[in-house]
Design brief:
Blueprint lengths: L11 E4 L5 H12 L3 E5 L13 H12 L3 E5 L6 H15 L4 E4 L14 H29 L2 E6 L2 H4 L6 H21 L4 E9 L13 H11 L7 H8 L10 E5 L2 E4 L17 H13 L8 H4 L6
Helix pairs in contact: 1-8, 3-4, 4-6
Length: 307
C-alpha cells in the first residue's frame, strides 16, 4: 500500500460514522498512514433512519484495495451496550485499540419553538451520548495500556451558533466539554482528547437552499471544502507527533486550520459594598455592555470565502 508518512503505523483506530463523508475520508487516510481501522456506520440517512450494512463494508473494501487492514462494524453509538461492541470489535479483530474518532452524527433541524422532544432526543443521543458511550467503552483499555487518543467532531454551530439547530448545537458544545473533561481526567494515563470543528460539504449540509444565484455561489464555494481536507489534522492528532495537543479545539476550513478559543473572563466589575438589582442595572450591565457578544452565527464569524 502506498502510505503518506506512516504517522499512525500499527495503531488501531475506531472511526464512527465512517461509511461516507468526513468519516470515510478519515478512515481511508488512517489506513494510508498505516493504521488498522474499525469502520463503524449503521448506514442510516442523515436523519438517522434506515440502517444498512453496505456503507461500512464498502469503505473497508476501499481500505483493502489500498493494501490496508479494516473491519466493518454496524453497531449504534447511541446506546452503551452497542457502543461497547464497537470497541470489542477492535479488540477481537486487532487485539487492541489506540484511537477513537467520534464522528457519527445526524441532523434533525428545526426552529427551537417548533422542535419536538423526539427531534431533541435523537440528535443528543447520537452526538453527545454517542461520544460518551464510545469514549467510555475505550477508557479502561486506554488506562490499562497507559496510552490512548480521542478525537471528537464538534461544530461551530455549538461554538458560535446557527439558526434552527438547538439540538445539534447543544450536543456539539457538550462534546467540547466532554473532551476537555476526558483530557483532564485521563492525562495521568497518557491519554489525550481533542476536538475538531470541520467545515466540509457532505450530506449533513446538503440541504442548504440554492434558489438564488447568490445561494448557488455560496454552495459552490462550500463544495470546495471537501471531507478529505479534514483528514490530515485528524491523522496528525492521532499520532505521537501531536503529543503536546491535549484538551484543544481546532477547526478546519478548506486549506485553513484554526485553534479556537475557549471561554475565559473578558471583563469584570466590582463594588466593595456588594450588588443590588438596581446597581447591577445602573453599573454592572452598562460597564460590561461594551464586551457583550452579538448574536453571531457561524457564517458571520467565518465570513470570508474559503481559501
Amino acid at each position: 500500500m502506498s502510505k503518506n508518512t506512516g504517522m499512525v503505523e500499527g495503531k488501531v483506530v475506531v472511526v464512527t460514522g465512517a461509511g461516507g463523508g468526513i468519516g470515510r475520508d478519515i478512515a481511508l487516510a488512517m489506513a494510508r498512514d498505516g493504521a488498522k481501522v474499525v469502520v463503524n456506520d449503521i448506514g442510516a440517512s442523515v436523519s438517522g433512519e434506515g440502517a444498512d450494512a453496505g456503507p461500512a463494508q464498502s469503505v473497508v473494501n476501499e481500505i483493502k484495495a489500498l493494501g490496508g487492514e479494516g473491519v466493518a462494524n454496524t453497531d449504534s453509538v447511541s446506546e452503551a451496550a452497542s457502543a461497547g461492541r464497537i470497541i470489542e470489535c477492535a479488540l477481537d479483530t486487532f487485539g487492541r485499540v489506540d484511537v477513537v474518532v467520534n464522528n457519527a452524527g445526524i441532523l434533525r433541524d428545526r426552529f427551537f419553538h417548533k422542535m419536538g422532544v423526539d427531534e431533541w432526543d435523537a440528535v443528543i443521543k447520537v452526538h453527545l451520548y454517542g461520544a460518551y458511550h464510545v469514549s467510555r467503552a475505550a477508557a479502561p483499555h486506554f488506562k490499562a495500556q497507559a496510552s490512548g487518543n480521542y478525537i471528537h467532531m464538534t461544530s461551530t454551530s455549538g461554538l458560535i451558533g446557527n439558526l434552527g439547530q438547538a439540538n445539534y448545537s447543544a450536543a456539539k458544545l457538550g462534546v467540547t466539554a466532554l473532551s476537555k473533561s476526558i483530557a483532564l481526567d485521563m492525562e495521568r494515563f497518557n491519554v489525550r482528547s481533542n476536538c475538531i470543528a470541520p467545515f466540509a460539504w457532505s450530506r449533513m449540509i446538503g440541504a442548504i437552499p440554492t434558489d438564488t444565484p447568490e445561494e448557488q455561489a455560496r454552495v459552490d464555494r462550500i463544495k470546495q471544502m471537501t471531507p478529505a481536507k479534514i483528514a490530515p489534522l485528524v491523522v496528525c492528532l492521532a499520532s505521537d507527533e501531536a503529543s503536546e495537543a491535549n484538551g484543544q479545539v481546532f477547526a478546519v476550513r478548506n486549506n485553513e486550520i484554526f485553534l479556537m478559543s475557549q471561554p475565559r473572563p473578558v471583563r469584570s466589575v466590582h463594588r466593595s459594598e456588594g450588588w443590588s438589582p438596581a446597581s447591577v442595572a445602573s453599573h454592572a450591565l452598562p460597564a460590561l455592555k461594551a464586551m457583550f457578544y452579538p448574536l453571531d452565527r457561524s457564517a458571520d464569524v467565518f465570513s470570508w470565502d474559503p481559501i
